[in-house]
Specification:
Chain lengths: 342, 364
């Protein structure tokens, strides 16, 4: 078995706001091994970004409350002081953000920003840091890095900025790379380049990746294990094959059915998940997906635990429905019946 | 429904004709604001939109698809070319003569947060177009707003609310309601679903579909998501650096792309099926879209094209008809048999290119 890098146990994150307590993350657990890619999917407000930022200690604040554990090689990152956390950020865990336009400082040169990250963690002189920055830019596929290192962010295109962000995240050889919607702001052709880059760098740098996205297509390409989040909870978890070929949660079916797909005949109508995601201040009773679930019944007034209900051992879900019933009914949602028609 | 009419090509009278439209943005420098260069955002584009159909415009960011969408409804002034709406050339019409035509063409914008005035109530936002065009009395307008709000899946009680009280999907519905207020014929939707979550996105696509059927609308649908565009469109135009490089019936574009750029674009779309994703050959395009200030010579796609030869660097390929209203601009067309090539007249003009073309690997 590969080396286990990260273990998250029953992580809960709450924020106190004027309107009430926002239960952003309510009990998420996972393990991450070296060389693996964990995909987290969900819609806006499902808690996926808060989870990522909490791993990096970026959600700390006077109004935030944490429960559970985030164990990085045995150390609970929730318990270490802000100062100690600095040694982990960048060194051990690197992060790529969604928007490459706003996450680089527009008034500093790209190279300076990468060198700054290196010098924050290692005692090296400016010249060494600069040549490391050039090397990193080369590794992430920036052409002509010797010259481009002195460019400002506005001289880079969106894809190149995201590459520069990745270079910065990798500057201190982190063991874990956390990518929060790294391709969402990019065109498909550039997205394909970045996805390839992340999986190649994962091997080159011998690290693990937490890849957060709302795009199931991207997840299908990059992830080994997948977590589906809804209303701050994990509603389904399993290997990539489990989630795509034996999905157990009606929410997962809904997500799979909502995307217009190029690999299938054009659907007359798309499946829709009725209604909207619930407010995280006022969560519905029982199963959080119940108000939008077409299969809900009386038992759904109690929230199901995240449990293994199928043959595959690592495949967990939160749904009371009978497995056989689900297997017979889910295709209506996922393919809209086009497969039967064909 | 519309797709059928389209393939028959019978009762589709042109609602909008765009002929050789160009839109250049000047880049000015210095005290004298001298023009030093031009951004060739839309460069000689022609197409027709038939009544009741949906024309999809796809391409990467910066290809000019939004500029084109805005130019055809005269939100931007075209630098050159003709825009003929219902038989009237509108490219040079003044404000007053344009106003009655504006009722017939409306826009839905991408960002449901930025496109609604936060200080106005929903009722005002939706009734403003009617007030501006002097349609009906106050009471009529109010009743009509209630109707439209219901049509787009909101409730008439939302009349007095402010935009911030709504979610992204609901705001986009308000944007659509505003566009419908004047009972337009043509709606230009500029990335109307790209800011929304997938589950909300599918609600919106179904809504647009229903509205088209009920109100006999014609859409120009600008989007970068090829899955979404395929779902809504009857015909699709692929743009690259200000040019239409391929124009085809929707399904055919996906099964038989002729332009290598289209092929690459399609292969880059991630497929939510792990086995298929693994089997599929992906053409990763190197580099970024070149600058539209100094577009490459010849075929604008040649620096990123894996089939490019000398002819591509020197001569710009014309948009050629390959039959079945499928047009493409390429010296090395893919998925085309010898017979079609000859009929299209490409074979004689570029005999060297034709030889290469047949030797190309065909996509399964």
């Amino acid at each position: 078995m590969a080396e286990q890098l990260l273990e998250v146990n029953d992580l809960k994150v709450q924020f106190a706001t004027e309107d009430g307590i926002v239960q952003a993350v309510s009990g998420i657990s996972f393990k991450l091994e070296k060389g693996k890619v964990l995909g987290i999917v969900g819609e806006s407000g499902s808690g996926k970004s808060v989870t990522a930022m909490t791993l990096m200690g970026l959600t700390r604040g006077v109004n935030a409350r944490f429960e559970g554990e985030v164990l990085y090689k045995g150390t609970d990152l929730l318990k270490v002081s802000d100062k100690e956390l600095q040694d982990y950020r960048g060194n051990e865990l690197g992060m790529i953000f969604q928007d490459p336009m706003t996450s680089l400082n527009p008034v500093y040169r790209i190279g300076e920003q990468i060198a700054e990250a290196i010098r924050a963690h290692e005692k090296v002189d400016k010249r060494t840091a600069r040549s490391r920055a050039i090397e990193l830019l080369r590794q992430v596929g920036i052409p002509n890095p010797e010259n481009r290192v002195d460019d400002f962010p506005h001289q880079f295109s969106g894809g190149m900025r995201q590459r520069a962000m990745i270079a910065m995240a990798l500057s201190c050889n982190p063991s874990i790379l956390i990518a929060d919607e790294p391709t969402t702001a990019l065109d498909v052709t550039i997205q394909a380049q970045i996805v390839d880059l992340v999986s190649r760098l994962k091997d080159d740098f011998d690290s693990a990746v937490v890849f957060i996205t709302h795009d199931l297509g991207v997840i299908a390409e990059i992830a080994d294990e997948i977590i589906v989040m809804y209303a701050g909870r994990v509603v389904e978890r399993g290997s990539k094959r489990d989630i795509f070929y034996d999905p157990q949660m009606p929410y997962t079916w809904g997500l799979l059915g909502s995307i217009p797909r190029l690999d299938r005949p054009r659907a007359e109508r798309l499946h829709t998940i009725e209604g909207m995601p619930p407010s995280l201040i006022n969560l519905p009773e029982g199963c959080k997906f119940r108000p939008r679930c077409p299969h809900a019944f009386e038992k759904c007034m109690q929230e199901p635990e995240l449990e293994n209900r199928v043959e595959a051992p690592g495949h967990l879900d939160r749904c009371w429905l009978d497995v056989e019933y689900k297997r017979s009914r889910r295709d209506e949602t996922i393919t809209g019946g086009t497969v039967e028609a064909a | 429904m519309t797709a059928l009419e389209q393939t028959n090509g019978s009762n589709g009278t042109p609602l909008l004709e765009v002929r050789h439209v160009k839109k250049y943005f000047p880049i000015k420098k210095g005290v004298m604001q001298r023009e030093v260069a031009r951004v060739h955002a839309v460069d000689d584009v022609s197409f027709t939109v038939r009544e009741g159909e949906t024309l999809g415009l796809v391409g990467e960011s910066g290809c000019g698809k939004s500029t084109l969408g805005r130019t055809v409804v005269r939100l931007l002034e075209p630098t050159d070319g003709e825009i003929i709406f219902q038989g009237t050339p509108i490219q040079r019409l003044g404000t007053r003569r344009l106003r009655p035509l504006r009722r017939e063409m409306q826009m839905v914008f991408q960002d449901p947060y930025a496109s609604l005035n936060p200080r106005k109530r929903v009722g005002t936002i939706v009734s403003d177009p009617m007030r501006i065009h002097g349609l009906g009395s106050r009471a009529d307008q109010k009743r009509r707003v209630g109707e439209i709000l219901e049509t787009v899946g909101l409730s008439p009680e939302h009349y007095n609310r402010f935009p911030h009280e709504f979610s992204g999907g609901q705001r986009q519905r308000i944007g659509i309601a505003r566009a419908l207020a004047l009972r337009p014929k043509l709606i230009v939707a500029d990335e109307p679903v790209s800011a929304l979550d997938v589950s909300i996105q599918s609600q919106m696509l179904n809504l647009l579909d229903d509205l088209q059927r009920e109100l006999q609308l014609t859409y120009i649908f600008v989007a970068h998501d090829l899955g979404v565009v395929r779902h809504v469109s009857d015909r699709i135009a692929v743009m690259y650096l200000g040019k239409i490089v391929e124009l085809s019936p929707a399904e055919e574009l996906y099964t038989r792309p002729i332009m290598p750029y289209t092929e690459a674009l399609l292969s880059a779309v991630p497929i939510p099926d792990p086995d298929l994703a693994e089997k599929r050959e992906r053409i990763v395009l190197e580099g970024d879209v070149p600058s539209p200030i100094n577009p490459p010579s010849g075929c604008r796609f040649h620096p990123r094209c894996r089939y490019a030869t000398d002819v591509c660097r020197q001569t710009e390929p014309p948009l050629v008809d390959y039959g079945n209203s499928h047009f493409a601009a390429c010296h090395h067309p893919l998925n085309v048999d010898q017979e079609t090539l000859q009929r299209a007249g490409v074979a004689e003009e570029h005999s060297s290119a034709e030889a290469d073309g047949t030797a190309l690997p065909q996509d399964a």
